[in-house]
């Protein structure tokens, strides 16, 4: 779970520094991916809807 959280943090950092179009794409893909996760995994992630 720590590695997964670190990966999400990294992707959020990349999205924050990327161009607007790329940032939007990254965030959209992350939202879709997170939506597909089982709820027991989502419970371990410290993600708010604002971050992604």
Summarize the structure.
The chain is mainly alpha-helical and 52 residues long. The protein has helices at residues 2-17, 20-35, 39-42.
Q: Mind sketching the topology for me?
A:
Layout: H1 2-17, H2 20-35, H3 39-42
Describe the structure using short key phrases:
flat; single chain; 52 residues; mainly alpha
Overall geometry comes to: flat
Q: What integer is the average pLDDT?
A: 82
User: Given the structure, what is the number of helices?
Assistant: 3
Strand content: under 5%
Unreliable sequence segments: none
Oligomer: single chain
Helix share of residues? Answer: 55-70%
Q: Report the major sheet.
A: none
Cα distance spanning the termini: 18 Å
Number of E-type strands: 0
Give me the strand/helix succession: HHH
Structural class: mainly alpha
Radius of gyration: 11 Å
């Amino acid at each position: 779970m720590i590695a997964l959280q670190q990966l999400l943090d990294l992707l959020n950092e990349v999205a924050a520094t990327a161009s607007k179009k790329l940032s939007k794409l990254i965030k959209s893909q992350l939202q879709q991916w997170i939506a597909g996760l089982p709820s027991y995994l989502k419970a371990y992630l410290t993600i708010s809807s604002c971050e992604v």
